[in-house]
Design brief:
The chain is α+β, with helices and mostly antiparallel strands. Helix content is 23%, strand content 30%. It has four helices and eight strands. A hairpin with a 5-residue loop joins strand 1 (7-11) and strand 2.
Amino acid sequence: MTTPTEWLDLVNERDEVVGAVTRDEAWARRLPVRVVNAFLVNRAGQLWIPRRTDAKRLFPGCLDMSVGGHVERGESYEAAFRRETQEELNLDLNTVPWREIAAFSPVETTLSAFMRVYELRSDVAPAFNPEDFSGAEWLTPAELLARIEAGDPAKGDLAELVARCYGP
């Protein structure tokens, strides 16, 4: 079964749309595109950190952000965040407190893409999509960074994002 072609906005160094590119081409050629990431945080300051399924094409079996995905062609960052949160966590953003906590550029950081980062607040683990994640656990930022440092495989931008958003 072939997956449908995923089209993304191609952006310049100022995050302005200059064209369109397929997801595969963007990553193969390291072209600048947009992504969203989010962390679900509980009252104790722990992050809900899922593990990607082994069936994932990129970063199989790796620790991941609570929510993450590409901004599709013609889509806003917030619309992508709403869509990805619904798809991955089965959460409607109208029912849970959230806020944007950061915006990053691959020109000014070592992160992989232009990125908006959001924070969701809840003490309840979500009923996540089992096609995306095989499990999850609550970890403090320090515990998560220690696990990654000790060799637990993680998605590429995870450690840098946690350090930038929640301190070293």
